[in-house]
Amino acid sequence: MNKLWTRTLEAVAKKPNAINIMSSLLAIVGGLLFGFILMLIINPNLAFYGLYRITVGPLSSMRDIGWVLRNAAPILLTGLSVAFAFRTGLFNIGATGQLTVGAFFALYVGVNWTWLGPAHLWVALLAAMLGGALWGAIPGLLKAFRNVHEVVASIMLNYIALHMINLMVRMTIYHPDERALYPASSARLPSWGLESVFSFPGMNIGILIALLMAFIIHLVLNKTVFGYELKSVGLSRPAARYAGINEKSRVVYSMIIAGSIAGLAGGVMFLTTGIPFRLSNVLLMQGFTGIAVALLALSAPLGVIFAALFFSWITRGGNLADRAYDPELIEIIVAVIIYFSALSLFMKQVLADFVKRRTKEDVQLHESQGDVS
Amino acid sequence: MEYAIEMLDITKEFPGIKANDQVTLKVKKGEIHALLGENGAGKSTLMSILFGLYKADTGTIKVNGETVTIDNPNDANALGIGMVHQHFKLVDRFTVTQNIILGYEDTRHGFLRYDAANEKIKQLSEQYRLNVDPHAYIEDISVGQQQRVEILKTLYREADILILDEPTASLTPQEIKELMSIMRNMTKEGKSIVFITHKLEEIRQVADRCTILRKGKHIDTVNVKDTTNEQLAEKMVGRKVLFDLDKKTAKVKDAVLEMRHASVLSPVTKQQVVKDVSFTLKKGEILCIAGIEGNGQSELVYGLTGMYPIIKGNVTLHGEDITKSSIRKRSVTGLSHIPEDRHKHGLILDFTLEYNLIMQSYFTEAFQKRGFLKFDAIREHAQELIERFDIRTSAGPVTMVRSMSGGNQQKAILGREIERDTDVLIAVQPTRGLDVGAIEYIHRELLAQRDKGKAVLLVSYELDEVFNLSDRILVMYEGENVGVFDPETITEQELGLYMAGSKRSEAS
């Protein structure tokens, strides 16, 4: 047993990926535990039931699984957007603004350009990416050429996007009665039979698009020259500059790509019949959840897939548990679980220290035993 | 003879390394005791234990014959132990007095009493002939004076035992001489000095006895007068050291890099930090840029490599004007650059070694195809360089560079830049912070490059290095070229005068 434990630790110590995965898992366990404690405090009698509903509930029917998959798509994309920017050393807190602009571009095309025929949906999705890219380019340019911190610029741009898009939607898409309007049927995400697999009417191929995107970003970051340059800039701008990389243009490209992924999230969210785009004075939450997703995934594109699925799962679990707790409390509990889970980085440090200490003690133990014999 | 300090059988272990292993150091009253060893030999750890920054695992410390426990620097101060760190701990915007009394303020009703402090500082300054103005601001005085402020700080706290950590590292030859006479003055007044260094010549000039550490172990304590430099070096390194590099006469060929009346603007300070500098670098020679740190040498190199803009004059490489070219263009055209700050510029610490070794060439056909990296080629390339340049790692090509030792990090950069086989190699402080073995290796490599017909531009703040390697010496002072000299005909003292700005040659 002891030997196995030591060997596992040694294996973990050798593989940075293993440490990353384990720290993310630990963060999730920590998040669930924290949520559970919260439930115990609020109403101890229902705590076990609540935890059961939150964790197991979403897996109890195909319909629920379908819900989890569909709602994972936008946060997978925003998470990917934030993670991608992180790898270039940028904190894209503006995913929500880029998502909003992307949604507007998608809806504008989706509602108005019905003449496009079979290409309608794909043009609308491309428009979503273009919108997000434009909105991401602004903080990127400001950062590269004026050294304006991207966090400050994109937070302000979030609100500009919110109110500007409200105005633009009213001017160009909605009728004066301000009712929500769905995109034309030719611009809606098809289900490709997923509807019947999950017997869930709102199901569509959004999750497939998001998965494809995650694999593309994984390839770009880890296999290409461009990814090498982006990561160099992210890890050390002075060193990248020394190596002759045009680090300013890389910052701009990175924000454009991050923005376009977040914009695509807007397309995937609203080119459906599910949730209509409403005029609102509140920023879309999916952009911020993307930050938590990226943190839990430690900015690894493939990790983002699992992190997004987990968050969507817990959110669904919260919906299912609202018979046990008030909806507001459920929201708090879910939020606590999600944000606690984002402490992967912290967990990674804890784990790394632990592994280091354990393996060292073992080595010393072996050495001292060797001395005796 | 009574001892001022006795550190007996001190052992200090850090995770993975025994920094001090049963080390004994005995310092007599009124002597200058040198502590000699390579980087990582445990000198600083031992002194940090004496100064209360670390706690020893085992062993005893006696001050003036009495066993003491030193848990923090305040305890050390109370026992009359003062330390001057290698990197000064001064507030630039404070006056000398303000810096000296910091943490030791004399107050009345919550108000500082400057007059008494000023008076005491003035008196101490005269007593030890330190020549420091208590009212001057730190940012206005020279590095040598700043060091004297640090010394005053310990004297103000009534220290009898001074620890000087590599005190000569950033001083000019003249300042070193002054420091040594100050040290002698202090011992005359009954103070004891522990002097950390790895420069043998300084030990010979000023120290009475010398304790040598190697790899955390106490090797020997000797009377300096009874030993030769060769013996000291052998004890320090653990093998015979060749002092004389096998330097052949240079076979200088045609010019390859030319700078004409160039001025460089620092984007950081918006100041013109290099003013009207001209020089020619020829194939087959090592041109050394000497000077005290901060006189525009770094910026000159940044200007050459394209990291800072050249606002006046021009630079040509192979006769082609590269004044406005990008960094990439210059490096591809024929500039290799071993940068001054290997952690900031030279390496990406959180990349693997193999990724770092392709930093300057990842975009070439050798390592990419249609935008995708060729991982096999990258691995092979790393293995070749590891072998050729003897880069020691824990996990080969996939070692994280951050976890490598400074010497091996520098070998990685050296290997990467030399392997590119360009005509011009610019090396800035290539041996800073390295131990004797690594320094020897890098010096040999640089000479080998010269003998292969490369043009080498070396920026160095160490006079030994300047004289050992260079074929010509260009001295910079306050951003200007104050003269080009032949190392065979100029003395260290004379060069020092040019470096300090008190002399300049019109011939340049």
Notable characteristics:
heterodimer; A: 373 residues; ABC transporter involved in vitamin B12 uptake, BtuC; 16 helices; globular; disordered C terminus; B: 508 residues; alpha/beta; Rossmann fold; 3 domains; six-stranded mixed sheet; 32% helix
Describe the structure.
The complex is a heterodimer of chains A (373) and B (508). Chain A is an all-alpha fold and 373 residues long. Chain A has a domain at 69-321: ABC transporter involved in vitamin B12 uptake, BtuC (Orthogonal Bundle). Chain A has 16 helices and no strands. In chain A, α2 (16-42) packs antiparallel against α15, α9 (206-223) packs across α10 (225-235) and α9 (206-223) runs antiparallel to α14 (301-320). Residues 362-373 of chain A have low confidence and may be disordered. The model of chain B has no long low-confidence stretch (mean pLDDT 87). Chain B has 3 domains: 3-237, Rossmann fold (3-Layer(aba) Sandwich), CATH 3.40.50; 253-334 and 423-508, P-loop containing nucleotide triphosphate hydrolases (Rossmann fold, 3-Layer(aba) Sandwich); 345-421, no CATH class. Chain B is an alpha/beta fold and 508 residues long.
